Amino acid sequence: MPPSPLQRPRLALSRVLAVGLVLLGACNGNDSKIIQLYPSIAIAPDVLSFGDTPVDYSTGLDLTVINSGQVDGNLSNFAIEAPFSIVGDPETVVPKNGQINIPLQFLPTTYQEYAGAISIDTDDPDHGTVTATLTGTGVYAPTPSICVDPLALDFGAVVPGSVPEGFFVISNCGDGALDITSMTQAGSGAFVVTGDPTGFSLASGQDSNIIVQYAPTTSQGDSGSLTITSNDPVTPTTTVTFIGNGGGTDFNYPIADIVCPTDVAPRDTVTLDGRGSSDPAGNVPLTYSWTLIQVPDGSQAPLTFPTSDVAYLATDIAGDYAVQLQVTNSIGVSSAPTTCAFTAVPKENLHVELTWSTPAADVDLHLLTSAGQFFVMPYDCNYCNQAPDWGVIGATDDPSLDIDDRGGYGPENINIDDPADDTYSIMVHYYTDNGDGDLTATVKVYLYGVLAGEASSAMKRDQVWNAGQIKWPDGLYVEQSDAPYTAPRRTCE
Asked: How far apart are CA 226 and CA 237, in angstroms?
């Protein structure tokens, strides 16, 4: 029998109560069910084409990330292949039933087709990582290129009240129109810029001169800058630096630094290391300029790689050397010069060196024992007997001629590590002039690493000069006053 209308509300209420009891039991029993909501992440489009883009220019497109789930989705680990990139910091939360846009950029560097991808990790358990394919082609288009010369104006020392002028040139080194969009000055107001080209368009090869005046009110120093903004796709901003009266206490010049060598001997190749040089303002790379500012009299020491961060100097004779390094930063500001001075000291106990005054003549150094005769082996050490065995103590008592210099100036050096007790004679032979004519020969004698004496003499071709004697172990050099005479021999016996 169906329930009466009066019974129906009671029945409905009882059903509600029953359902509530069932759910309550489910929550407390072993068969409970928990419903958890997840995001549902998709990416659109899955292929993003940037089309044709001029090399060094950029094209931007948005990638859309959609969440059709009932809770917010989280994004992480954005990975994208060059020359595609993400612009700025992307959003990492996609709202439920919503979407976000991720701005991308394509910047081709060569004329070719590119294919890449972007991948994003999500907390969507069904989709995990979402990806999209990216394509684009680098194509040719006329491109402007800004050239500014110089990048620094240094007015030097200027008396207050004076108003010297300088200028720099803005040029378009590219093949597309160069548009100057703005110029912003900073630093000291003592620099006055005239001829503002803002809004100008420079055709390929065209240039514009910018005049700068320096009107200091004190001698304490001033520095400033001018930043130029253009449509150059590679260098959109260029800064010119202004310096006056040293730049003031706040201006930092580049710094030249040398690792100065120690323990140097004649015939060493010395490494001059300037790699510690720096620019506090970060205007790099630096350029390097090495200068040889002091050598011993008679030295022909060559300085190699004078524009590199590491240079080399071959110390040809004993004595004092000095080199100077000046570095220049990328905007043309130079450092104060830094000097490195060192002395080449012979390591042998006996060191005799010969130099002469002309560029082509061939002059020879001889060192003889007390039993020696000119050009008679073995007791005359010379170019045809460069390392004789004098056999008194052993190898350390034997002499050696380091080089037979046939092309002018010298040097020629003869060394003995530990001389035997004897009296040694120094002789100089003017072998041939090679068109030089008369010359002056100079001999220096170092004993125990100390200059014991030196002597010079005018000579004619084929003359011999007895330059003095060395007494050992007394450690004495005795100069002789005999005038040069015609050589009794010209070859070794």
From this structure: 10
